[in-house]
From TrEMBL:
Domain Reverse transcriptase: 1-181
Protein name as it appears in the record: Reverse transcriptase domain-containing protein
Species in which this protein is naturally found: Rotaria socialis
Pfam families documented for this protein: RVT_1
Length: 181
């Protein structure tokens, strides 16, 4: 029930597939911003699903729903949604060998809730960089934990920004590549 809300509210920075990336880059090109000096940057968030801070993710979910005017979703109060999401995140156990483990950070891989929470968490995390990119007319797009952006300033400035971004959250670390093609 949360995924359609995320898809609707975050479509401006979300890449859904290769075709949507090409469409968005075509729009960027038509603005005349695709210059010979452009840098392209891709980055990957390391282990996003398993590194999501559980309580913070739930708080960000609530803030996201409040910010978009939701008090209920399909007749379910957002407090109930938070409680259910908490159960899914915090009561996740698995067996390995003869031992049973409880996951204390992140969520289950393959869980549709973990997918949606990760996207909502990242939409909150990326706000400053999206604002920076928007203010300078640059492209920014994210597909879950993979990000693509353009840059028309120096590579040194971009590296400084990305090194700074790597300090924004203790659980969110990125590996990046910069190139001109």
């Amino acid at each position: 029930i949360l995924r359609p809300i995320f898809d609707d509210k975050c479509k401006d920075t979300t890449i859904i597939d290769g075709a949507s990336l090409i469409t968005e880059l075509s729009k960027y090109n038509k603005k005349g911003l695709l210059k010979p000096t452009i840098l392209f940057c891709t980055f990957d968030i390391r282990n996003l699903y398993t590194m999501l801070p559980q309580e913070e993710s739930l708080d960000i979910l609530m803030a996201f729903l409040h910010a978009h005017g939701y008090r209920k979703v399909k007749g379910i109060s957002i407090d109930t949604i938070k409680k259910l999401a908490s159960i899914i995140l915090k009561d996740n156990v698995f067996a390995y060998g003869k031992n049973i483990y409880k996951q204390t950070t992140g969520g289950a891989m393959g869980s549709s809730l973990t997918f949606t929470l990760a996207n909502i968490f990242m939409s909150n995390w990326q706000k400053n960089i999206v604002e920076e990119q928007t203010n300078t007319g640059e492209f920014y797009g994210r597909y879950i934990d993979d990000i693509f952006m353009t840059w028309n300033r120096s590579e040194e400035e971009l590296r400084k920004l990305l090194d700074d971004v790597n300090t924004w959250h203790p659980n969110i670390k990125l590996d990046y590549k910069i190139g001109n093609s």
